[in-house]
Amino acid sequence: MDYKLFELENGIRVIHQPVNNSKITHCGLILDIGSRDESVSQQGIAHFWEHMAFKGTQKRKAFHILNRIDSVGGELNAYTTKEKICFYASVLDQHFDKALDLLTDITFDSIFPESQIEKERGVILEEMSMYLDSPEEAIQDDFDTLIFGQHPLGVNILGTRESIKAFHRDDFKQFIKEHLNTERLVVSVVSGLPTSKVKRLAEKYLKNIPMMNAPVNRLSADPYVVKHQTINRDLMQSQVALGREAYSLKSEKKLPFFLLTNYLGGPAMNSRLNMALREKYGYVYSIEAAYNAYTDTGLFAVYFGTEPKQTDRSIALVLKELEMLKKKAFTPVQLHRIKEQLIGQMAMAEESHISLMLAIGKSMLDKGSIDSFDEVTAQVRAITSHDLMEIAEEVFNKDEISILTYRPNKS
Q1: Which of 31, 36, 339, 396 is deepest in the core (most CB within 10 A)?
Q2: Confidence (pLDDT) at 2
Q3: Which pLDDT tens digit goes with each residue over 121-165?
Q4: What is the pLDDT of residues 263-284, one digit of tens each?
Q5: What is the pLDDT of residues 373-394, one digit of tens each?
Q6: What is the band of 229 on the pLDDT scale with cuts at 50, 70, 90?
Q7: Distances, alpha carbon 226 to alpha carbons 128, 147, 255, 352, 404, in Å
């Protein structure tokens, strides 16, 4: 990958991936801070900060923030995960200056007006209610809690209603002071602009940001304990999540396990679980397997909804498929097919320049480097059938699989 990387004196790294035949610049400020960095009293504040960044800075009111990018046909957005906060924008190349100016402003100079905090408090409480009304979303958060308990990785990114109601301006300032570290911040840019211009504008807006060096104090996850839980809810359909703790970002088994997870329940309609539960039996409308890797741990999960009378049978079928991966090796033809499928999906994803911008920024934060597409392809093609069976033996023991089930109330 022909990316350009340079570092400012304050520790902020700027990465530029030049692309051809595009008039759009995608840029983001990605911070290595997330909900897992919150204390008990701060639960939900990282996500709340993401909302409040758009509500006023030293030199802009909320309207001016929202209007600055939209008025030139661009898009401004943000997200929060367990370990990251990102503010990003997409604009025509000639407006990159405006975008980077604004992203820098909302990241470092938000003023958190109390009147806006009160308004956004209501918005986030409504967001919580929306998720509670979507059982297929809620079960994913509850499954995090089942696996990680009260560790920050097990706490909903949105926080609790009690914590959200308690935040005021000083709480945001304190959280930022405790966690913002300029050496853990990457500016990621994908565009057709000359790198010299990207560097010049990055220096213009970011060079004078003072160095910040808040320490990293992430609490390690507790040892994994298998748990089964059933929750009765007012539903028409059962919702199921099953899985366990998995490999961390630093594990050499991360990529082989991602390949295995993609084969099991990735986005393709020919995924193993979709063929077994939907195409063969018609038990589910959709089923997915997901693998989230964190700094020091990971999570593997399978999610699906089904009719109540088919719940136990569907769970048994999933466990059977996991068991088969321990006992039956992939043939050379099968292994080639699943590798080529993943490689094709990665190539398609890289065609989305906004996804590429976010991916290379996160990679730089997590690993300090970026593997080219050819390098990742070579790594995928080097995976053996023995590698996958060994991983299946480690992860897919049915006695070590946790299960969370939402079952409809009998009434």
Answers
A1: 31
A2: 84
A3: 999 999 999 988 899 999 999 999 999 999 999 999 999 999 999
A4: 999 999 999 999 999 999 999 9
A5: 999 999 999 999 999 999 999 9
A6: very high
A7: 28, 8, 24, 38, 11
**Calpha distance 282→260 (Å, rounded):** 23
Measured CA to CA, the distance from residue 27 to residue 50 in angstroms comes to 16
Closest CA to 221 of 300, 146, 141, 148: 148
Dihedral, 42, 187, 76, 347 alpha carbons, nearest 10:
-110
Q: Of how many residues is the chain composed?
A: 411
Distances (CA, A) of 374 to 16, 153, 204, 252, 332: 18, 33, 34, 18, 21
Measure the CA–CA gap between 98 and 61, rounded to whole angstroms. Answer: 16
Query: Cα–Cα distance between 61 and 58 in angstroms, integer?
Result: 8
Identify whether the C-beta of residue 86 lies closer than 8 Å to the C-beta of residue 365.
no
What are the structural domains, with CATH classification, of the chain? 4-206 (3.30.830.10), 228-408 (3.30.830.10)
Return the C-alpha torsion angle 156, 158, 162, 165, nearest 10. Answer: 170
148 closest CA partner among 198, 220, 85: 220
Rounded CA gap, 53 and 337, in Å? Answer: 45
Closest CA to 297 of 149, 101, 133, 171: 149
The number of C-alpha atoms within 13 Å of 381 and in the hemisphere containing its C-beta is 9
Residues 6 or more apart whose Cβ sits within 8 Å of residue 337: none
Task: Compute the distance between CA of residue 35 and CA of residue 133 in angstroms, rounded to an integer.
Answer: 22
293 touches 248 (CB < 8 A): yes
pLDDT tens, residue by residue, 117-131:
999 999 999 999 998
Instruction: Report the DSSP pairing between strands 228-233 and 13-18.
Output: unpaired
DSSP 291-358: EEE-SS-EEEEEEEEE-GGGHHHHHHHHHHHHHHHHHSPPPHHHHHHHHHHHHHHHHHHHHSHHHHHH
Judged against a pLDDT cut of 60, whether residue 216 lies above it is answered with yes
DSSP labels for 49-60? HHHHTTSBBSS-
